[in-house]
Amino acid sequence: MSRKPELPVDVCLKIDEALTASGKLYQAGNIEKAIEEGMVGWSLIPEPKAKWDYYPQSMSAHFLQSYAMLGDIESTKKWVEITAQMYDDPNHEDHYVLMLEGEAMYGLGDLDRAYYVFARIHEIYGRNGFAEDQIKYLKFFLKEQARRDG
Known about the structure:
Blueprint: H1 9-27, H2 31-43, H3 55-70, H4 73-86, H5 95-108, H6 111-125, H7 135-149
Helix pairs in contact: 1-2, 2-3, 3-4, 3-5, 4-5, 5-6, 6-7
Protein name: Tetratricopeptide repeat protein
């Protein structure tokens, strides 16, 4: 797989300015304003955004996590799809993207969706798909699988 092209330096510098401001707002606990400022940076990425390296991937993942922290399930679901697009993952097989979605859905209380995503991780990656800090998700999946299997 060939590497995606990097954004021009002048665009990166402008995005970095927006992300610095966003980061300060995030650290201050103002997640909604941090997202707004981050969207300024997002808007600077030329279309199609998925063709570029680094910024579209890291920013989309961060928006997904930020909306999950706010408890905004609809925006989180939207950014799950965008993140999958940015990672060239149309079949939802990328471990990182799947785990982002699973953790977000679990945290938001959408346990049916979380179960489905963790089942997908288990199907593709087995127990190795759950790192030490993710064992609680494996335990949830196995317990729920046993319950559903009756």
